[in-house]
Design brief:
By secondary structure, the protein is of the alpha/beta class. The chain has 2 domains: 117 residues, Urease, subunit C, domain 1 (Roll), CATH 2.30.40.10; 305 residues, TIM Barrel, CATH 3.20.20. It has 14 helices and 17 strands. β1 and β2 form a beta hairpin. α4 packs parallel to α5. The two termini are 41 Å apart.
Amino acid sequence: MILLDGCRVVVTMDDAGTELENASILIDGGAISWVGQGRPPVREQPDVIDGRGLVALPGLINTHHHLYQTLTRVHAQQSGLFDWLRELYPIWATIDNDWERTAAEVGLAELALSGCSTTTDHHYVFPSGVTGLLEAEIEVAGQLGLRFHPCRGSMDLGQSSGGLPPDRVVEDIDTILSATDDAIERFHDPAPGSMRRIAVGPCSPFSVSERLMHESAALARRRNVRLHTHIAETLDEETYCQATFKRRPLELLEDLGFLGPDVWLAHCVHVSEADISRLATTRTSVAWCPTSNLRLGSGFAPAREMIDAGVRVGLAVDGSASNDSGNLLGEVRQAMLTTRGRKGPAAMTAREALRVATRGGAACLGRDDVGSIQAGKRADIALFTVDGLPHRGAEADPVAALVFCNPGPVQHLFVEGKPVVHDGQLVNLSEASMIWT
């Protein structure tokens, strides 16, 4: 057992939004067995982590990423999505196992150090003749100790067929479906408390055929796994969909059977009121990527409107080549600020933004066992210090200070009750070994 003792504030993220001052958390195995003030109900002496001065949050949940992009930051700095992709696809066509492993180490470590306990990854680039890419990132996530939801992504619509990606990075449909089914068979664990689940992730309407979208949805539902794709990210995409399919992006997904409670969609920047209603009615979730959308000049996703309409919205750093950072706590701050920039200073509170990154992320990934600090939930807990220089003067509200002030690194991170970060340092990988030129 581990006791996180005397935390300055425990932010439970339960339905009532309970926050407990000078409170403790008892971890028994991989689960939380008790949360409260005073002495925990234990018969044996637990290992104690001093929580004084620390704010305890549920581990943050990242709902969209492209880990392989970590090694191609700051490219195409003045480009929008389509031109950015055209510049980077030839580079990404050269990825191999060493690339994937290094990128996953850096990207996942960066997330962990920002307090992220669970992340997905949308890997859709499989150059001809290269194998073991999905396996490499799964191995790294296991070594680091993060809860991992990788998507077996895909592209079958190359330039010769009217798509955006070069032909050498697309696959044929039969290969995609077979490889996806194999990944589910080998790696998906549906059990409560699972550390790894596989999703099906065709890339986007401009890189995937209608047939692949339809058959991917059928495969996911046959195997009872979740579905993911990019949609409604840019106005260029909307123009492409109108010209190619005679439908707007969300209308296309609806016709393809790609909406529902087992689906979460990345971006949803350019959505109408009817689209938002469609998402809410079908119980489709959304991965909100504010920094990536800003970096590429794509626009501002109407996350406030989606949340108010009952859409389940999670937060995401997106790929590191369109964010250039993997700091999920920093993304919480960005989410709050962009919403206020769109809708005014009362449009989103710090606690609402944190809720999107915890409970909202859990909903996106179809999990009810993470996202809050409650007895019976999995022991995914991030502890942040609020007594350093960046938080001086913010003593009145240490929880809000985590979002309003400069997002600092996590002090301790537990995933499934095991330490992943301790005293600000990675436990299972060496940060120094990842730094190379």
